[in-house]
Recover the amino acids of this structure.
């Protein structure tokens, strides 16, 4: 039997390496952030382009003028390359928190010729935020990283990834990335979770402080509150005019008030649901004029 030489061993190792390389999936090349106006960060750590962003015109968002102007100004400064703050939009359900983020993104892009990219990261993937930040770092495009309906429950420790991505770590937040989040909670952590930390921790005050300080990473806290009936009807009127729905104002208001009463709430979401019902009854498509 002939002796096995070093050359034979190297040849076999090379064949094995070549076979493993053929079996492994090809490395995914990073997306050109200028190719689309929005992306979604997926569970495999890649950016999926969004062909059509679901959003409403910023002029249709009624009853939130003050927070709208603050977020627009902050976003426009950031898009121009100047310092700006991370923003937490918190408060009442259905009052346009996520709609405002997407509407402001579109309005600033229209004003500054597509300067901003919107990247959405889902709540369940928030522990991948540091990896997303690393991927976005160094891009020549300004990026809004956006998480809708952000909150933490139970023993969920992924809030630490959010804290590190926003301000902590050696590298810090990339200069070309800003983080916007929406939540029904001002402090992101429920009170019973804080009380549990206080009762079980060696140093209760420090344990609670660590969780409460998460909200401090956001320079802007923008509160959204339940709207008045006048604001609600303004929303309805705005949609009717925008879509050219053929209905009388008094009749539409009476129907809208009845609609809100059956739902026990008045909000932008309830107004939009009423408009969908109204358009269906009128057999008119919801296409802007």
């Amino acid at each position: 039997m002939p002796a096995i030489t070093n050359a034979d061993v190297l040849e076999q190792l090379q064949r094995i390496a070549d076979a493993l390389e053929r079996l492994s999936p090809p490395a995914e090349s990073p997306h050109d952030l200028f190719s689309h106006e929005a992306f979604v960060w997926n569970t495999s750590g890649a950016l999926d382009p969004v062909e059509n962003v679901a959003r409403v015109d910023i002029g249709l968002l009624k009853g939130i003028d003050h927070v709208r102007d603050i977020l627009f100004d902050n976003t426009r400064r950031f898009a121009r390359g100047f310092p700006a703050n991370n923003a937490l939009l918190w408060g009442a359900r259905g009052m346009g928190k996520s709609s405002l983020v997407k509407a402001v993104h579109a309005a600033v892009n229209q004003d500054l010729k597509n300067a901003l990219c919107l990247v959405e990261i889902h709540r369940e993937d928030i522990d991948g935020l540091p990896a997303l930040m690393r991927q976005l770092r160094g891009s020549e495009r300004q990026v809004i990283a956006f998480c809708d309906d952000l909150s933490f429950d139970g023993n969920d420790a992924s809030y630490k990834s959010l804290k590190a991505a926003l301000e902590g770590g050696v590298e810090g937040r990339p200069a070309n990335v800003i983080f916007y989040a929406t939540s029904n909670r001002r402090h992101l952590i429920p009170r019973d979770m804080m009380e549990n930390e206080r009762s079980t921790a060696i140093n209760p005050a420090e344990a609670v402080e660590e969780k409460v300080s998460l909200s401090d990473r956001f320079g802007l806290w923008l509160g959204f509150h339940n709207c008045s009936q006048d604001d609600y009807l303004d929303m309805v009127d705005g949609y009717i005019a925008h879509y050219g729905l053929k209905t009388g104002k008094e009749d539409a208001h009476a129907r809208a008030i009845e609609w809100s009463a059956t739902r026990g709430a008045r909000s932008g979401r309830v107004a939009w649901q009423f408009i969908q019902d109204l358009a269906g009854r009128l057999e008119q498509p919801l296409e802007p004029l």
